[in-house]
Specification:
The protein is α/β, with parallel strands linked by helices. 38% of the residues lie in helices and 14% in strands.
Length: 369
């Protein structure tokens, strides 16, 4: 907990939204971005670009694969838009983009806009249970070109069986894209072992890396088949060639990078990723589950029975119904920081939390004084 700068006054339960700032990341921003800028001005670029390489290396160390398979992105939506326009021409009969209705809306907006380029969007309804492999097996019909799979759904905390879905996609020649925004850093995983073709993620949540540090992971055998439309000089095989008549795609995932890159977000995120690796994702997950259980155990039997029974991805999402106002008012009065989606309250426990946080939340939740 001491390795994080934790906002007060009460328990911080918003890691599913914005993870707490690690102290090492705050220090890195000063030493690896601001100081080179102040001391070397435009000559700081070699140092800055090395920090982005450190970001790619840190991702590979945490999630597997090689640094060359990772490309920095500002966010998942931008990465998805670039990917869809980079695919080879639409094959006859395979034009459908498939995703769950409970996917993050921003990605849904991208998928809908892709219909202007010949795609057709089909959303699996919420009652089709996107965490059930049988639902995906029925939905992955011959017309599907791309399946976007949200590993952990932000509104429910439900976990989709990504590896099983990816296997079905491979058998049916469907490009499988995983959204790991709500799972990276809380569920131990290896991107190559998931079996998907592309991973889209960000560092803002469980990775505690702040906004602006998104990333794409692309399976190496696929990279050479993708030609992004949205390019810039850092998509070039040699960004410093400076010949307007000559463009050659970079031979790794950085072909998706684009124009002059942001640096500060990736400096912060690289330090945060190293911190998460030292803590260990498996250890963070075990700690999260212990605190969730401590919270549940401290509740009355009636309240405990209303807690979600399915496996969660780290965030406890509970529909409160008529008790919504009373519970949220009590948590606010206790200083807890949380958020809601409709009448669903969302709380998450990370390495920055202690068992006392879970007990304090439980007491406020059920009105104990």
């Amino acid at each position: 907990m001491n390795s994080f700068l934790v906002p007060g006054p009460g328990p911080y339960l918003l890691t599913h939204s914005v993870g707490c700032l690690p102290r090492v990341a705050s220090d890195a921003l000063q030493s690896d971005f601001l100081r080179p800028w102040a001391e070397r001005g435009g000559n700081a670029w070699p140092d800055w670009l090395q920090q982005v390489e450190e970001f790619r290396s840190a991702l590979a160390q945490l999630f597997g694969g090689t640094p060359a398979e990772y490309c920095p992105q500002s966010n998942l939506s931008s990465g998805l838009a670039k990917l869809l326009l980079a695919l080879p021409s639409l094959a006859s009969g395979k034009h459908t983009l498939l995703a769950a209705e409970d996917s993050f809306p921003s990605l849904g907006f991208v998928l809908r806009q892709a219909e202007r380029h010949g795609y057709t969007l089909r959303l699996m309804s919420r009652d089709q249970s996107p965490d059930d492999i049988r639902s995906w097996s029925e939905a992955l019909t011959p017309d599907v070109r791309v399946a976007l799979v949200t590993q952990v759904h932000s509104n429910t905390g439900r976990v989709a069986p990504v590896a099983e879905i990816a296997k079905l996609c491979a058998e049916r020649e469907i490009l499988c894209v995983a959204d790991v925004a709500q799972s990276a850093g809380i569920l131990p995983m290896s991107f190559p072992e998931l079996g998907v073709d592309v991973v889209l993620g960000s560092c803002i949540k469980w990775l505690c890396g702040g906004p602006g540090a998104g990333y794409m992971w692309i399976r190496s055998r696929l990279i050479g088949k993708l030609e992004p439309f949205d390019v810039g000089w850092f998509s070039h095989e040699d960004p410093f060639e400076m010949d307007i008549h000559s463009f050659r795609y970079a031979n790794d995932a950085s072909r998706f990078w684009g124009g002059t890159p942001s640096i500060a977000p990736f400096v912060v995120a690289a330090a945060s990723l190293r911190n998460i690796r030292e803590l260990g994702v498996a250890g963070i997950r075990s700690h999260n589950l212990r605190l969730v259980q401590a919270f549940k155990d401290a509740l009355s039997p009636a309240w405990r029975a209303r807690m979600p029974g399915w496996p969660i991805g780290g965030t406890l999402c509970t529909s409160l119904g008529q008790e919504f106002e009373a519970v949220t008012n009590a948590l606010t009065a206790a200083g807890a920081q949380f958020d809601c989606r409709g009448d669903v309250i969302r709380i998450s426990f990370h390495a920055c939390n202690a068992e006392d946080d879970a007990l304090r939340v439980a007491r406020a939740w059920q009105g104990d004084r």
